[in-house]
Amino acid sequence: MIKVGIVGGTGYTGVELLRLLSRHQEVTIQAVTSRKEAGMKVSEMFPSLRGFVDVAFSTPEDADLKSCDVVFFATPHGVAMAQAPELLAAGVKVIDLAADFRLKDPAEFQKWYAMEHTCPELLAEAVYGLAEVNREAIASARLIGMAGCYPTSVQLGLLPVLEGGRQLVETDTLIADCKSGVSGAGRKAEVGTLFAEAGDNFKAYGVKGHRHSPEINQGLSAIHGAPVSLTFVPHLTPLIRGIHSTIYARIKPEGRDTDFQKLFEERFAGEAFVDVMPAGSTPETRSVRGSNMVRIAVHRPGNGDLLIILVVEDNLVKGASGQAVQVMNLMFGLPERQGLDVVPLLP
Amino acid sequence: MIKVGIVGGTGYTGVELLRLLSRHQEVTIQAVTSRKEAGMKVSEMFPSLRGFVDVAFSTPEDADLKSCDVVFFATPHGVAMAQAPELLAAGVKVIDLAADFRLKDPAEFQKWYAMEHTCPELLAEAVYGLAEVNREAIASARLIGMAGCYPTSVQLGLLPVLEGGRQLVETDTLIADCKSGVSGAGRKAEVGTLFAEAGDNFKAYGVKGHRHSPEINQGLSAIHGAPVSLTFVPHLTPLIRGIHSTIYARIKPEGRDTDFQKLFEERFAGEAFVDVMPAGSTPETRSVRGSNMVRIAVHRPGNGDLLIILVVEDNLVKGASGQAVQVMNLMFGLPERQGLDVVPLLP
Amino acid sequence: MIKVGIVGGTGYTGVELLRLLSRHQEVTIQAVTSRKEAGMKVSEMFPSLRGFVDVAFSTPEDADLKSCDVVFFATPHGVAMAQAPELLAAGVKVIDLAADFRLKDPAEFQKWYAMEHTCPELLAEAVYGLAEVNREAIASARLIGMAGCYPTSVQLGLLPVLEGGRQLVETDTLIADCKSGVSGAGRKAEVGTLFAEAGDNFKAYGVKGHRHSPEINQGLSAIHGAPVSLTFVPHLTPLIRGIHSTIYARIKPEGRDTDFQKLFEERFAGEAFVDVMPAGSTPETRSVRGSNMVRIAVHRPGNGDLLIILVVEDNLVKGASGQAVQVMNLMFGLPERQGLDVVPLLP
Amino acid sequence: MIKVGIVGGTGYTGVELLRLLSRHQEVTIQAVTSRKEAGMKVSEMFPSLRGFVDVAFSTPEDADLKSCDVVFFATPHGVAMAQAPELLAAGVKVIDLAADFRLKDPAEFQKWYAMEHTCPELLAEAVYGLAEVNREAIASARLIGMAGCYPTSVQLGLLPVLEGGRQLVETDTLIADCKSGVSGAGRKAEVGTLFAEAGDNFKAYGVKGHRHSPEINQGLSAIHGAPVSLTFVPHLTPLIRGIHSTIYARIKPEGRDTDFQKLFEERFAGEAFVDVMPAGSTPETRSVRGSNMVRIAVHRPGNGDLLIILVVEDNLVKGASGQAVQVMNLMFGLPERQGLDVVPLLP
């Protein structure tokens, strides 16, 4: 049994990790930390876990995280980088669901997250937690910076057309018009995400620049093997879970004869968690609610030179905790679907 | 023109006062205070007011509230009682939308609001702002404690059967099962009212005791002229605006021959803001969205001894700011509908 | 492996059966019928099932339901009673999720469902599918009339105080104020349940009389062993899944010394799917979203003579398809939790 | 007083016309037709109108529409073209909110709406009801084909950069990624727009081609004076009202020195219903809820060559009924804001 610790179990990615890991047959949840709620049963805060998770929150000090095999950080940005070096030194694997180990350039991190990186020496070692791209590196990694929710959907959506330097679409006019449910903002007291603010309302945000932009461009450039520049416009939509990314790519002359449907189907044929929908589909977010699946549809209206890629994911599962469990499975040599074989909840 | 000041313009009752008063033809909005946002245009915080409200937030000091004819307090509990004495002394009328002047007994206030009342000497003078009950007293009042959102719906629903000591229903087994939209909790950063918490979710709260219980019982007892005891169970429902009260009353033997439909229709025949629906109706909250109207339906299943009264209101209008404007109209001798002649927004 | 047939797989209870049964390790889904969609893959209509359910809809004729071990009817009222006799004769067990076999009196059925009962001779044999009440009878039954969604919550909520003729509460003044999510109305094209009608809206319905009233009173009377009369008022609330029942019971003098919290805890101690919450709790519907669990809290404000029982369930799971799987497990001697060990989805 | 007839008063655009026109001081509502509901009071179907609209539905025959000054068609496509010729011949002005008179080419109409146009001879005369573009033509028109909901937002968003042949942006790579609330689908019984289908869900639709595409391109080409080709991708989002269009335009070399914020502000300076937000804004749909206002924000990330234009409108007001009243005002020489001076409802 893998001994798991979770730092920061009071947020949405924390409770989602607990939902998934509590049914994972190779895992024991050894500790869930929350300084503020120490002593309270986790299931008292989240009654949905009654009968499934019996552990109480503990302080980081009492948690003895060093005796875990792996520690997930479901925390605000900045927490993982403060604790990761010590855990790694003790032989514990670290999976950070926040942004501490996503960006390779500490200056970029500082620019977007307004804090200095405290262990830049680990950035080179840290593996980017996007299994479909980095499966082998993940399997042998000690430290993972999990892909963000938006970046997961955008990178998977563009993977087949950019991978390996393919010259199918223009790489400097890419647009990702993304829509996220409100849980993406986390479980923290803020006016902007109140029900009476975000309900029956739709808006863009971060148009000037969003933290996920450098992550997306870094990831796409790595996939492509050359610089890629994508314009990312996130929107807040009144759903609890779900991201829908509508990606626009201009097809290059050398890409015009490509059968994009086939390209996507072949690329993802062996992937457990990427489902290429039949031609003409328009996937809906609820078709992946509660599951680690991403569904993708590819459109080329009028057989013209614009490729439209639609991607849906559950931002808390494939966009966060589910993908983290997938990555953990890889790190411990388990079947990738273990603990993630959940049917989406519809309606 | 009536010079109006609003203390606390950043919450939902504040913006709702501004929506209504900005179209009120006898009113000038002289000042809207917010210490925190002083200097910012009100319409910058609430773009819905662009073109309708040109004023900026000011500090209480700069606002010169004493030069107003009337000041509304759309503030947390405790603010109005700190400022009312001085304003009243300056000849300014005061309308408090919070609870400072609702309960007649300062001990009760202290018990439920966890603060000492700082001007108990004003409690006797303060008139309870429920126009359909206290119209005359309101017209000559200097100081109003506006009825709460739930209490407005419950008192109006029971008014015809309790008024003037009528012996139609049992007064010690009354139940009000009330459901409120999330805006009732105000525009303040709290986890419990986040979209991802309150959305697609339904729960009771305050079953042990809710602040509106003493207010309801005080009001009903005053209406009845004898003690009335009602069990009040509030619920949070995923709508932005709206309260639906389902009231259960046991009909006394002496009430069994009453034509309750007729009783209700006659009682409210002259009321501008109470609409008794045809027999058999089930009013919906959206039928009053954005309006000061209350709609009531009366049911007596199987002609038995249980009376079921359904009441819907918009908690921010008739349950708060609209009713406050109605009360202001009464205080200044204006037509009661002035500024409130708004068609509900459906869908 | 149990060979399962599902008649009527295009509605919400159908897709929910498929979600649960597709992960049930003792079950093979042999046929899903829909005359209208025959030939279409089930997962084409419900992409959430892609990768989990590979079967296509078939016509009833092609389905060879007689070779199944058990057939679920997830159909409109009236379908099961037309097909049950033949299936039973062929040795197939029948579980009807509609109302055909709920009411024992065919005249009552005809009154509430506006159709004549075509096999009244089966009504006596049919077992009411509420496992916590009828476990043994279910285990040996051939034909089950599943409990309705509202009736499940109300009966479980009152079970401990009424069972076995207990004289704890008045049985003629019971009230159940129930609130249901919109999926309870089914997946059929109707104006009243459109998003733009039912969204941001709350209303009562069926106040004059609802089909679940006779079912509730029949069930409670059977539980109590004497006539029970409950007033049932359903409400439509803007959530997708979930029922919240607020039940009011007057405590009799002989019940006043009862420790109701303890009574409930002891009654349900061995039940896999009934969770009595700690004293003072207010359970939320999302705490059971997607799961077969019912959560109950018991309140007695001011230690007075009113008992308030709060019950939450997922109307599509414990209120329909999950309970049907639970019943199937009992009928086939399987562990009651088999295939139902799902963590609720929160948020 | 202008005598108004409304054909088809049972849908959302119908009730919205009634909401607005019932407060319009120069209007008398003479008839509201619905063959199916003839005889029923309009306010019985829409209780929100109780006290504001006293008229009953009548059959088209009884309605005597020829005695009206103007008739609005709030009907499915195809109804207006059947009745318009006779009304026009009788001297009645006609405003069609459906698509019968939007497209200039009857072949295009037939292609997209799957019916033959029955009065193509009127298409040349019909004026496109987008006031900000066609104000003068509208003022003297007899027959108006109102702009669609999506096309209104997209055309207003691109008006300043395309008008009069301006060479500021590429006209063959334009993209409009649009998101609509569910009321846009109308008040008709359909599975896809049920609360339990469209709630907590997000999806694209019509990616292959949507009826509003030819309308948008026709309108933009007319504005530009040269062919414009825009890719239009609509999405369904779980809000009741509201459209958010995110428009992407590539800036041409000759447009790079343009101050787009200023361009937009100047273009719309005199417009009553177009509000150019301050630089950097991200307008939200609720900021125009219930009002005829459109709010626009202009972004140019990194001062690069991509222009992002954000447009919000209420699809039932500026996208339909409000704009129709605006057009009526123009046709009758009334102030454009008459009856439309409504503060948006927030929250």
N-C termini distance of chain A? 35 Å
CATH names the topology of the largest domain in chain A as: Dihydrodipicolinate Reductase, domain 2
The fraction of residues in strands of chain A falls at 15-25%
Choose one word for the global shape of chain A: globular
CATH superfamily of the largest domain in chain A: Dihydrodipicolinate Reductase, domain 2
Count of extended strands of chain A? 14
Element-level helix/strand string of chain A: EHEHEEHEHEHEHEHEHEEHEEEH
What is the count of structural domains of chain A? Answer: 2
State the helicity of chain A in percent bands: 25-40%
Oligomer: homotetramer
* Major sheet description of chain A: 7 strands, parallel
Query: What is the overall pLDDT average of chain A?
Result: 97
Q: What integer value in Å does the Rg of chain A equal?
A: 20 Å
Question: Strand order of the main beta sheet of chain A, please?
Answer: 3-2-1-4-5-7-6
